[in-house]
Write a structure and sequence with these properties.
Blueprint: H1 12-17, H2 93-117, H3 134-148, E1 151-163, E2 166-179, E3 182-193, H4 196-202, E4 211-219, E5 222-226, E6 236-240, H5 242-246, H6 254-264, E7 267-271, E8 275-276, E9 279-289, H7 290-297, E10 306-314, E11 320-331, E12 334-345, E13 361-363, H8 366-372, H9 381-405, E14 418-419, H10 424-430, E15 448-452, E16 457-462, E17 472-474, E18 477-483
Parallel strand pairs: 6-13
Antiparallel strand pairs: 1-2, 1-12, 2-3, 3-4, 4-5, 5-6, 7-9, 8-9, 9-10, 10-11, 11-12, 14-15, 15-16, 16-18, 17-18
Length: about 500
């Protein structure tokens, strides 16, 4: 068995630096593993076997042929020629920066003009003007109109009514001046057509072919009314503004209209704008239930049909310049289409609204005035109740004149409650101050009651609308009562 050289397994450099003996390892190698010439010879320290290393790090003293990759093909280069361009140089940094800035500016301007035209909405429009969002735009427009305080407007509307018997058109035109001092409105209504249902619906106010005009001034707590085309048109009727609430009617305030559109719209989108007297506007299309608007004037009226509204608001601060509206309306069992337009002018200009002279004013209640001028419908329970109130107020004024003309002063006496339509002596005295003594709209089934002890009186009428806040509950009946001082309870 041959001795193993202790330097076996060390590299050349490790062999030369090692000074410590390595224990001899004896083994019995297979004869087939060693050449015959080396079976009895020690391993040479000059030509050691390579160290045992990972295959990737194995070194070999054997010389292997070197295989070189093929040389890259040589592409012939064109010879320099004065007519051929040389290699292009890159753009300078300042040129690249300028182009990048130009792209940003052009893109920004593109978004701006598309946004202003209503094609897109970036959500940033409020930074330079009116938002594209309809709800926000109408809210800002309402506030802008409130801040102005003074403006004028004119409008027109048509209600085309179609029924089994034909078609009729109710047309309305109005102008309105608004200032911090008050409001002045001039309006005109006309009805044309052959619809019998429309004639029955509007008959108490106007008949087919009629044209009715109305002028109104509201200053403070006073409301002045007149019919310009009637005899004595220079006379105004003064009524308390509080009477408006008694007939479930409210003055129309345009800032409230804009707020109602903002809060009540069920669909909204931007539309193209228009220019009014050199002022650029944005267009908005809104869909709003009609009841949202009618309840501003008539709280008890509920019309659920949606109408389409197109408004043009100043692009900068939202001042309204025009509002167009259209849509179907169902009321009273009739099918109809509503359309119209309102234009605002003289925004912010001074407007002088004056109180009519005292010599031109005749004071009475609003209900009496409406009833006298045919504006109170009598074909519904609320219409009949309104007539009852107006009749009793008119009768009470006539009774005051009867008492004042009596010697001594006193009202016509009764023995308890009597039916006024069955008291000929009393109606004879009233007729001296009335063209016609009113009777209940449902007479003889209903009547006006009267009682007096000579010092005072009480007038009563049975109401149909049980929810009327002016009524007095007596048993199962709701009565409208007018009393004077001195009546015996």
């Amino acid at each position: 068995m041959a001795d193993i050289d202790p330097s076996w397994g060390l590299g050349q450099q490790e062999q030369e630096s090692s000074t410590q003996a390595i224990p001899v390892v004896k083994s019995q190698p297979r004869a087939s593993l060693l050449p015959q010439s080396q079976k009895s010879l020690p391993l040479s320290t000059k030509n050691p076997l390579p160290p045992v290393q990972a295959p990737a790090q194995k070194q070999s003293n054997a010389t292997s042929p070197v295989i070189s990759p093929p040389a890259a093909p040589q592409i012939p280069q064109p010879a320099n020629h004065p007519d051929l361009p040389g290699p292009k140089a890159g753009w300078p940094g300042w040129v690249k920066g300028t182009l990048a800035a130009l792209v940003v500016v052009v893109t920004g301007l593109g978004f701006y003009f598309l946004s202003e035209a209503g094609f897109i909405s970036t959500g940033l429009e409020g930074l330079w003007g009116l938002p594209n969002n309809g709800t926000k735009a109408f809210a800002e427009s309402s506030q802008s109109l409130l801040n102005l305080g003074t403006y004028q407007l004119s409008g027109k509307a048509e209600l085309v009514i179609t029924s089994a018997s034909g078609q009729s058109t109710l047309s309305g035109f109005f102008t309105q001046d608004v200032s911090p001092a008050g409001t002045r409105v001039q309006a005109e209504l006309s009805l044309v057509g052959n619809s019998q249902e429309a004639a029955e619906l509007f008959g108490p106010v106007l008949a087919a072919g009629d044209r009715v005009q109305l002028e109104m001034i509201n200053i403070g707590q006073d409301l002045f009314l007149r019919i310009p085309d009637q005899p004595g048109e220079e006379i105004w009727t003064k009524v308390p503004l509080s009477d408006v609430a008694l007939i479930d009617l409210r003055p129309f305030a345009w800032p409230e209209v804009l707020t109602a559109i903002a809060e009540g719209n069920i669909a909204s989108k931007r539309d193209g704008g228009k220019t009014f007297d050199g002022v650029k506007t944005k267009g908005y299309q809104e869909q709003v239930p009609l009841s949202v608007l009618t309840k501003l004037m008539i709280p008890k009226l509920s019309l659920g049909d949606p109408i389409n509204i197109t408004a043009f608001l100043e692009a900068k601060d939202g001042k309204p310049y025009a509002i167009e509206f259209s849509g179907p309306v169902s009321a009273g069992g009739l099918s109809s289409d509503l359309s119209g337009k309102v234009e605002f002018t003289s925004l912010g200009s001074s407007s002088e609204i004056q109180t009519p002279a005292v010599a031109q004013v005749d004071s009475q209640t609003l209900e009496v005035w409406l009833a006298e001028n045919g504006f109170t419908p009598s074909e519904s329970n609320t219409g009949r109740d309104a007539k009852r109130k107006a009749d009793l107020r008119e009768i009470s004024l006539a009774l005051a004149n009867v008492a004042a003309s009596s010697q001594p002063f006193g009202y016509p006496k009764t023995d308890g409650l009597v039916r006024l339509d069955q008291a000929p002596e009393i109606t004879r005295q009233l007729a001296a101050f009335l063209d016609e003594v009113p009777a209940d709209p449902q007479s003889p089934d209903r009547y006006y009651g009267y009682e007096s002890n000579g010092n005072g009186f009480k007038l009563t009428a049975v109401m149909e609308d049980q929810s009327d806040q002016q009524g007095t509950k007596v048993g199962d009946l709701l009565l409208f009562v007018i009393e004077s001082r001195g009546i015996i309870q």
